[in-house]
Design goal:
- The structure is a single chain.
- With 227 residues, the chain is an all-alpha fold.
- The chain folds into two domains: 71 residues, DnaJ domain (Helix Hairpins), CATH 1.10.287; 132 residues.
- It is 77% helix and 0% strand.
- Helix 5 packs parallel to helix 8 and helix 8 runs antiparallel to helix 9.
- The longest helix is centred in the first third of the chain and has 29 residues.
Length: 227
């Protein structure tokens, strides 16, 4: 397995339907095949596209591939967390206990509070919007919620960067860092849904928020170990 997976090759999401897989395959095959487009012809890319389609178009092979991909993702997250721990290890002249308390009060607690303001209303907001996604008033309310989310996220990112974290909570900081990244991507996908009503963006945004919530729980669990 390489960093570029079959879904990336076909330029589709991991939740793509069979129809979406076939549609993307045909588009890319036409783009890179020498018989249809000499200017963009790429034999190696055609080989990769065919290999990806052979796997993802077969439900059983796709399930097996997804399991392997999930395992690779887990390993990559562990490696990123380890690198983040190294990156965030900074020493200051303050005593360790004082530094930890300062970080908890000025970073950890306010960041978690802001993250909750983003995550907690999502289910209710989507439920209200689902009554009629084409209702202008409901959509305006949902867009206002997303705008609030952007504001809270910007505040959280500023607070997160305001102090170096103590080495003892490097793992906690890493989980919060990736949590904020997932929320940023999720907000953008949800915003794309408001622009074109494509359910793919709605589902992806919800999934990214779910991942962010999981990362926040992991940060809380890691903090209990430190405390």
């Amino acid at each position: 397995m390489t960093s570029s997976n079959h879904y990336d090759t076909l330029d589709i999401s991991r939740t793509a339907t069979s129809a979406e897989i076939k549609q993307s395959y045909r588009r890319l095959a036409k783009l890179f095949h020498p018989d249809s487009n000499r200017e963009t012809a790429d034999h190696e890319q055609i080989v990769r596209i065919n290999a990806a389609y052979e796997v993802l178009s077969d439900p059983q092979r796709r399930r097996t591939y997804d399991q392997k991909l999930h395992q690779v993702d887990s390993e990559n997250r562990q490696q990123r967390a380890a690198k983040a721990q190294t990156h965030y290890r900074r020493q200051t002249g303050q005593a360790a206990d004082e530094q930890l308390q300062q970080w908890l009060q000025q970073v950890y607690v306010p960041v978690n509070r802001l993250v909750c303001r983003i995550l907690n209303p999502l289910a209710e907001q989507i439920e209200e919007l689902s009554a009629d996604p084409f209702d202008d008033e409901l959509m305006t309310d949902f867009q206002s919620y997303l705008e609030d989310c952007r504001g809270y996220l910007n505040q959280a990112q500023l607070v997160f960067r305001s102090l170096p974290n103590p080495a003892t909570v490097a793992g906690v900081a890493a989980h919060l860092y990736y949590c904020l990244n997932q929320l940023g991507d999720g907000i953008e996908d949800l915003n794309l849904f408001t622009l074109n009503y494509d359910d793919h963006y709605l589902h992806t945004g919800q999934e990214l928020f779910r991942i962010a919530a999981g990362l926040r729980r992991e940060a809380q669990a890691a903090m209990k170990v430190v405390a």
